[in-house]
Amino acid sequence: MNRDDIIRMARDALNQRVDYTIWTLSTPHLEAFADLVAAAEREACAKVCDRIGDEFADANPADCAFAIRERGAP
Q1: Of 16, 29, 64, 74, which residue is the least packed, with the fewest Cβ within 10 Å?
Q2: Calpha distance 59→68 (Å, rounded)
Q3: Under DSSP, is residue 39 helix (H, G, I), strand (E, B) or coil?
Q4: What is the largest CA-CA distance in the chain?
């Protein structure tokens, strides 16, 4: 997930195309945005675990956790 993905999710949470520099978000908009970001992150983590399982037959949960943590490493 990158900056453009997060901005797209914020626009999706507003249910409209926003091209303004300043956005006004209500609590429901922020909650919808948080839900979209959390869902995207869960899916990204699940894909990491799927890939680890596909590539390494003897992979264990610690391997998956390590790979997820490495996603955010610089």
Answers
A1: 74
A2: 14
A3: helix
A4: 50
| Calpha distance 61→47 (Å, rounded) | 14
Q: Is the pTM of this model over 0.85?
A: no
Could you tell me which of 44, 46, 61, 34 has the C-alpha nearest to residue 2? 44
Cα 24 to chain centroid, rounded: 22
Token match 């993905």: residue?
A: 5
Rg (CA), the chain: 16
Kindly report, residue by residue over 37-57, the tens digit of the pLDDT.
888 889 989 999 898 888 888
Written as six digits, the tokens of 68 are 């997820």
